[in-house]
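User:
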Amino acid sequence: MANQERGDLVSQLVDLVREFSGLPECRNAVKEMYVNLMRRVKLLNPLFEELKDSEEQLNADDDVQGLQFLKIALNLALELLKSVNGGSKTFQALQIDGIADKFRAVTAQIEEALCKVHYDRFDIPEEVREQIQLVHLQFKRAKRQIESPDLQFQTDLAMVKKGKEPDLEMIKRLSAKLHLTTINDLRRESLAIHDMVMSADGVPENCFELMSFLLKKINDFVMLGNPKLDSSDHESSFVRHRSPVIPDDFRCPISLELMKDPVIVSTGQTYERSCIQKWLDAGHKTCPKTQQTLLHTALTPNYVLKSLIALWCDSNGIELPQPQGNSRNPKTTKIGSECDQTAITGLLEKLGNGNSDEQRAAAGELRLLAKRNADSRICIADAGAIPLLVELLSSQDNRTQEHAVTALLNLSINEVNKGIIVGVGAIADIVDVLKNGTMEGRENAAATLFSLSVLDENKVAIGAAGAIPPLIDLLRDGTPRGKKDAATAIFNLCIYQGNKVRAVRAGIVIPLMELVKDASGGMMDEALAILAIIASHHEGKAAIGQADPIPVLVEVVRTGSPRNRENGVAVLWCVCVGDIECLKMMKELGAEEVLKELLENGTDRAKRKAGSLLELLQQVQLGANL
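Assistant: Predicted structure:
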């Protein structure tokens, strides 16, 4: 290796250690492991500084090779520290054994690289040599027994996982260990969980309920059980005697008012329900804040943020007005001409006791009434229409069946009605329409399942009812509208791991890849979004890898829209991690230049994935040179 290249290698090591020094403080359950690894790495810096001042010492090829291996190991350590210092603290706590294994692995890799660096023959000051020997010994000891979470913390987590109701002392310990001790901590944690749900990686099915449960318990403790955590007695008194400043995250981006009923759109942004609904009703197809095109217009309740807003209002002595449209206020049923109770009662009589023609006509009228406005949807459900409509899903008359499933779709827009529809056992009948109905019936059944799947508890039930294979059939063979309905339902269902597996085993990857290749078909956005979410599961990754995805995905990253480039590079990253052949193919297709451009101009998530892929490609090149 030329002197210039040796000098560059040492300079890169010096810069790498500086990056470690610039990392922020860790405030989560892995803090001890984080601090110890960072401290040991920083102690290597005197060696690199000495070598930088006298590069001629690097004459032996084995020393250079050792430093190259050390650089790779330190890069992996840096990525690990970055990864554990962000995201959800509750999720990291539940995954702490796996994280400890990662720390153990990277510690072993650094120690093995140090064994290849013969620092004992370098002409360096004795105190530097002794320091490096000491650090090497520390890595060797840590490799055998990495720091583990304290026993009390592990015991507390185990009790929570078993479903035991935690007492006040346990919640207090968990709050302190997770560094969730202020309202700002809790708000950041709720946003981190929300980002996980909306990202391609998703939230593992077995973790989400535990995360939500744990966050709620710590919420209650911080805001109600220990109000002094966020401020002193003097500050608390001051807050109660002034008009509190509403946190920006609690304001609707449209109205700038405190949100009463926060909902999430497909881009991940949160708005007040009434404000974003008016925006959508006006015909807009974009997110007001980001201007991105909405994949769908469904609104997902942001329960975590709603809970935080309620707690904030309570602690500041503010009465939060109740949102309209989701409660069963008796006054809302007195709508006059907007909601004719007598007419609805007459229609329900025909549904239950009429002949086939009367049932068809009544179902059609209820379908139109349920589409009209929120008040009509409440009145129809309160009158008892939902069980009767569910019975008609089994009708032998195709038109009656279409009217019934579409009426349920319109009624399901109301959050309370979603629970009623699922509660009367409608999911299996809706799936049957999806499998065997007319094209219009199948399309509206898919849309109904999507609407119901907005509630997390319904995602598992819908997947278990066998909805995913017929949704894939509709995605493959449906009309353009049917394909859109199927895609949005599949995407939402696959937020949960179990449904990802069902989709992969039902053969979803091939039709998705065909939709990505067909740029004129209008389904590339949806197909890439689904691929990105299922690629995070090992079965999804394997299935995508068998579909020869690299050329088409590289082309998407090269020429696609910002959203498609983001999802395309996310799929590439999942598929190529640990697969040398895929990485070599990417290099042959000129992916490095494409990724470098994306690193400059992509979305934040696309930049992160592009940077990680470039590092993998560089490691492949380094391995080839060695």
